[in-house]
Amino acid sequence: MPLLTSHQVLDIRFPTSESLDGSDAMHTDPDYSAAYVILRTNQPGLEGHGLTFTCGRGTEIVAATADVLCRMLTGTSLDSITQDFAGWWRRLTSDSQLRWIGPEKGVIHLATAAVVNALWDLWAKVEAKPLWKLLADMPAEQLVSTIDFRYLADALTPAEALAILKANDPTRNEREAELHHTGFPAYTTSTGWLGYPDEKIIRLVREGIAAGWNHFKIKVGANLEDDRRRAALVRREIGPDRKLMVDANQIWDVPTAIDHIRALAEFNPWWVEEPTSPDDVVGHAAIAQAVAPIGIATGEMCQNRMIFKQLMQLDAIRFCQLDSCRLGGINECLAVMLLAKRFDIPVCPHAGGVGLCEHVNHLIMVDYIRIGASLENRVAEYVDHLHEHFEHPVVVRNARYLPPTAPGYSITMKSTSLRDYAFPQGPVWQRKLSP
Amino acid sequence: MPLLTSHQVLDIRFPTSESLDGSDAMHTDPDYSAAYVILRTNQPGLEGHGLTFTCGRGTEIVAATADVLCRMLTGTSLDSITQDFAGWWRRLTSDSQLRWIGPEKGVIHLATAAVVNALWDLWAKVEAKPLWKLLADMPAEQLVSTIDFRYLADALTPAEALAILKANDPTRNEREAELHHTGFPAYTTSTGWLGYPDEKIIRLVREGIAAGWNHFKIKVGANLEDDRRRAALVRREIGPDRKLMVDANQIWDVPTAIDHIRALAEFNPWWVEEPTSPDDVVGHAAIAQAVAPIGIATGEMCQNRMIFKQLMQLDAIRFCQLDSCRLGGINECLAVMLLAKRFDIPVCPHAGGVGLCEHVNHLIMVDYIRIGASLENRVAEYVDHLHEHFEHPVVVRNARYLPPTAPGYSITMKSTSLRDYAFPQGPVWQRKLSP
Fold first, then answer.
1. pLDDT in tens, A405-435
2. Are B245 and B271 a contacting pair, CB within 8 Å?
3. I need a surface site. Which of A38, A276, B42, B124 has the fewest CB within 10 A?
């Protein structure tokens, strides 16, 4: 049985700020990055890889934190972890001294995600299955046993989670077959970054329509006039039937959000994403009530299952955009997907960044096969960049994610990318940083 | 005018886990620690000192983060910061790349507190006033101008904040004089740490009563039988009129909290502190409604002003226990104190730890003189340890905090303590860590 013997944590950065890919109202010049974890074992060549997405500066802080967490695992057998995964997850997130600097939020939770995702990658590789298939085949009781239900009792108990899985079990093979055949619907954010000029947006939307995309998202929040012009422009290009989504990236306070969304209503947005602070559950509820039937979406910066629980309890979101690295890895993603099922809210995961599409590809398969079990109002984000750095990049065809086939969590980066983009010592950064 | 020329960040740890001082249901073995910031200037001997409290492991992560933030300040004049303090606060908390690893929560916000508090310490030293006096004398408009009101518009506007201050201005000198004369009421947590045996608690309670204390807090949450025994024991010792508070340190989920608090009701707790996750605003509201008239208190792990805003909007807390280092320094503490005034909730700050009593001493003076302007249901935490490491330790007499007199924010540690307790290179740790 594999034993965790050592680890390595890397700070990998891509200089995306040069082209303003990924620019939005709050993140004007991101260098898409990753704190990247490698868990080594006593079996030659058998490694678990995991990452958490970051935006450049600060990656070194998350990497240092992941290193601290990895040390808790050294000398442990993978078996002893997977047989008590909820217990280990609690140990990683609730260390009696470390929890003060979280708990379960921000830096330490991002680092937890990288480490926990590397454990799942390793487990799936040992089982010689892609991660989604490991979870698709797992007995319901075992899947529930991986989740730490702390603080969820007023919304979701283990028994309720088990009932959800059991109810879906008889039909899960049909949904798995369907995914192999037609994939899971995706939408694109590649068209509307805030830094792009109008002509570039028009060109990208037209290319997107030609490639079969039916959902288009644009960034808003710089100023109302620009936002209205860009929304009108995209709506004109996509026609009345395709979906337009807008994303404010937390730029507004609650009253401004309500005014601004009402001023965009004529362009018929399907959802408005991150209208205000991701911490403001009550604010999201107020906005949702004021702008209905326009749906409110959030999640990429929602720090843990407790925030999602409250967003659902207060009927504050119509779409749950959980983030595979903001939450503390697969175990907590499963908890949030189960919560969403309980509250009948579609899960439309956040992606883009570095490796998030690769992660999300597995999560949506698991959600459809075992938890949400519906495609209604489901659409997973897709951004077409940085996939070339992964050994098993995501496959999207006809605007649909196809099930991954390689064993693991699809997060292993090519060794050349790990070498070239290492910060600051890799050759790409040495060239950029040299005077 | 002082110019910020360089900085130093230290990792200072006290081996408090040896005696279980500070032990509670979630933090079973804390080593009370600090990420400690020194901002140096072009004026010899003029330095700003600030810290954020931590629990041992993880201090190095917060210290590394504070170092990143300090670098943003180098070369800036203190004047240019204090003349646009809200703007600088926003710059520190909203860096377009760094905010991804927060924003405004956990590691990065704890680090922000240390840096921002050091700036205020420096400003007060330049003005040759204790920090509370700098704020007591400041024109209302200037005080409001230090606050970043982002995400508060649905609960508190700058105009409303100004109106609160203006309404209190005519009587502020009376309250200041009163504080000099009689101080601000305190309560003690030194008696009831979870790791203490019953006999030690009895002895400490009796000593506390003899020293004039009227409020006693005990830790609960290990198991109901123990909690009932300890609550009964303390209630018997203090009699029916003194106040008993209990602190669960987030151990319960919502239904368990309700059951457990009801089972403690016969001992008449004045408040129950941290019944569940600090992130669960909706859960606190449910608990508060179920256990009234017992008051719910929380705050030491409430990550920012948005969480306090919601706790107040949902009527989820009867006592606001803001933490001077969990929030992003004085500027955000002022915002939360103003919110509390708007919602008529007493501010009873969290203290203890390392240096928190020294911080809190200033905050309660400012709150009474300029914002809350009442002593009703106000009581500030006091824990009698680690004060000997500070150059100007807090003075508590007859169970009341007295106004600090030395210029600054009272956070400068003795150079011998900074040397001896530096982790891991200080002699105290070298002795402990050597085999």
1. 999 999 999 999 999 999 999 999 999 988 7
2. yes
3. B42
